[in-house]
Amino acid sequence: MTTALPILALPLLLLLLWELGARWHWWGSYILPAPERVLSTWWHLAVSGQLARHVGASLLRVLIGFLIAAGLALPAGIFLGLHHKAYVYSHSVLEFLRNVPPLALLPILILWFGIDETSKIIIVVLATFFPIFLNTLAGMAQPDPQLIEMGRVYGLSPWAVFWHIRLPQALPSIYTGLRIGLGYSWRSLIGAEMIAAAAGLGYLILDGEEMARPDVVLAGILTLGVLGILADALMAWAGRCLLWTERRNRRA
């Protein structure tokens, strides 16, 4: 109870202020409807199955985009972190792509691939790639020189140095990149779904705005926030397990 209190104190205070503001008419219901109205709308969407359909569509897109981005960014970050010259040659192209907002590419992606799943998944991949790539690159490119030298003194092969020294040292940075990348996946997807989608939380939020239903908009936003917290908690748990296993293996 004492641990949960600091975590819940601010959300409960904000909920209380929200309820008081709606009850005492500090603002109009069109601007911010009462919490019970939003909860009722959320429950209706859940019972009718609409919420599950939108959540399922968004989760599938995030999962596919995140896995593709990780599958591309991890090898690229490792390779370029180990081969500085290759990174120098590719730096300008990578910097150009990194500084172009993925949503700015959505119109051309729609022209190329239509409004089906491909364009939205590519947006997720582009937004997720660089957080994972840059953190992996930083972790691989900055090893402890003393440990590297010790490995060479003991006659370790380049592969053994990579597997037993450089990769374990880079794991915290790689994990950070994966965790940040997952958050970027959600952000980019919701933007893409607001522009071109027939299902998903972004579509639900936009549909609520077009119907002048702020309760639907807030129900979608709250669902998105809760899913983001759960996804980040799952990633944090997986990261702790991975790093704990790695430390235990190193001690052994």
TrEMBL record:
Signal peptide: none annotated. Residues 55-235 form the ABC transmembrane type-1 domain. Coiled coil: none annotated. Belongs to the binding-protein-dependent transport system permease family. Its main location: membrane. The keyword Hydrolase does not apply. Keywords: Cell membrane, Membrane, Transmembrane, Transmembrane helix, Transport. It is found in: Cell membrane. It is a multi-pass membrane protein. Pfam families: BPD_transp_1. This is ABC transporter permease. The keyword Cytoplasm does not apply. The chain crosses the membrane at residues 62-84, 96-115, 121-141, 189-206, 218-243.
